């Protein structure tokens, strides 16, 4: 059960970004929709490349704490700073091109960190037991945790964003909730 709870990250983070990131880029950062979509496309393309690479890297790793755990630990240390930069509500660069590069760079960085955590974690589920039924139970429980996290984060993050749009909360409280609450 404890191992399966790790999938709260995968379901929650994926939903948060899928539901809100483009809206964040267009409504808060004021990035043109086409450029926001391009930034996401580039990051998703990188994600399609780095997932199999991470799988191969973690398969070949040999360490005293196992071949998956070093990556999960390193990724979890990097997660909050990357979330903070991904959702930074004040763009460092002012031009549309600069905003797109900023969004693309940190979405690529986020996808890299997410891959460093998620791919070894998912691979680990096949290694925790030699018993088929036990592995199946763990993976079903992981899916349940991921689904509940996905639904919860989608509802809560959408509510939070609507609170911001309605003027109920300010930009910085919303930012802190996203980074510290969901990160």
Key words describing this protein structure:
mainly alpha
Can I get a quick summary?
Helix content is 78%, strand content 0%. It is built from 6 helices and no strands.
Topology:
Layout: H1 7-28, H2 33-60, H3 69-86, H4 96-124, H5 132-165, H6 171-182
Describe this structure in words.
- The chain is mostly helical and 183 residues long.
- It contains 6 helices and no strands.
- The radius of gyration is 18 Å and the shape is globular.
Classify the helix fraction into a percent range: over 70%
The major beta sheet can be summarized as:
none
| Class computed from helices, strands and strand pairing | mainly alpha
Per DSSP, the total helix count is 6
Cα-to-Cα separation, first versus last residue = 21 Å
Mean pLDDT level: 89
User: What is the N-to-C succession of helices and strands?
Assistant: HHHHHH
Strand content: under 5%
Q: What overall geometry do the principal axes of the alpha carbons give?
A: globular
Low-pLDDT segments, ≥5 res: none
As a whole number of angstroms, the C-alpha radius of gyration is: 18 Å
What's the number of extended β-strand segments? 0
